[in-house]
Amino acid sequence: MPSHRSAAASLLAAVWLCLGVALLGVGAAPPRPSSSCQRDCGGVDIPYPFGIVDSPGDSSSDCAMPGFGLTCHETDVNGGRRTPFYYEVEVVDVSLQQGQARMQNHISSYCYNATTQGMDASEWRLTGTPYRFADTNKFTVIGCQTLAYIEGAHTHEYTSGCVAMCRAESDGDARSALSNDSCSGIGCCQTAIPRGLQYEVEFDSGFNTTKIHNVSRCSYAVLMDASNFTFQTTYATSPRFNTTYGGVGVAPLVVDWVVGNQTCDAARKNSSSYACVSDHSECLDSLNGPAYICNCSKGFQGNPYLQDPEQGCKDINECTDLAKYPCSVPGTCKNLPGGFNCRCPKHTKGDAQNGTCERNHTLGLGEKFGI
Questions:
Q1: pLDDT tens across 149-158, in order?
Q2: Residue 162: is its pLDDT beyond 90?
Q3: Cα angle vertex 46, ends 41, 49, to 5°?
Q4: pLDDT per residue over 119-158, tens digit each?
Q5: Burial class (CB in 10 A: 0-12, 13-18, 19+), 35
Q6: Where are the domains of the chain?
Q7: CATH hierarchy code of domain 318-370
Q8: Count H helices, E strands: the chain?
Q9: Burial of 172 by CB count in 10 Å (0-12 exposed, 13-18 middle, 19+ buried)?
């Protein structure tokens, strides 16, 4: 199960276990959510199958599929702003189309203790869950004398390490070797991880900051979304990295979520639990193991998990957004179910989308009668 080496994080670790199992273990028939359900928390959209409930373990609510219930409450960290949580794990964003969620992952730290003159470790492990990590996540290590490992849990079938050092230049100051935007081993190291990994983080005690604590007291390691990460030199020489992402000791993590742990072919055979219930919806196999999500078919938009004709997959009227779906000849757009067409005006022919409508010189039936 996910755990933290300090007692203070034991509750949060247990939450990760519940969250992973809940999101990937859905198999019951999808309930029909009430129209009165709250769909926003602190500016974060909460689309079904997620929903706001009284407690995350509430399986009786019709606002969310079992296991997808979130709470909405104020936190001191966010200055009193209301924020969605699954137990104590903050949910930053939910994407229906991609089947992903952005959350806040715990940062492991290894810091010099001036009182004991030793090192205090706060190491994190995420095990026992079927969570799948998105490709944008990388194991990131920050420090001036740091070696951290990320290991496959239980069997240790996978082990990788990252070394971050600050080699002193001629002036003897390790900080002089650091460079902004560079994460290549000097103060910062990153490495990709394999799909499906359940992991734990450990620091090598042979690399510590006892002798350089006046320059770099702490080292940090975390599995995080690296798509928008930019290294700053102050990350290695101050606690700034630990507080950069809207809280203390957290960093963004992107995870895949699914509504069933079967392939699409297998899921379709059980209509009582098949989650793609909206008209004009389709099933997509997960790229990260046997599981699936739902999307609206091309030319439709909405929520594929809802049968409600107003909230489910509805036809996109392309003619109302000519900047995205242009017809070069004005006034020739014709909306069609799942698409659109640019039809040339009466008595002309050609391609209205490319602006090649020309007068049709063939006489119509009425003109022939007139003659």
A1: 988 766 567 8
A2: yes
A3: 150
A4: 998 876 665 444 578 888 999 999 999 999 988 766 567 8
A5: exposed
A6: 1-97, 106-253, 264-315, 318-370
A7: 2.10.25
A8: 4, 27
A9: exposed
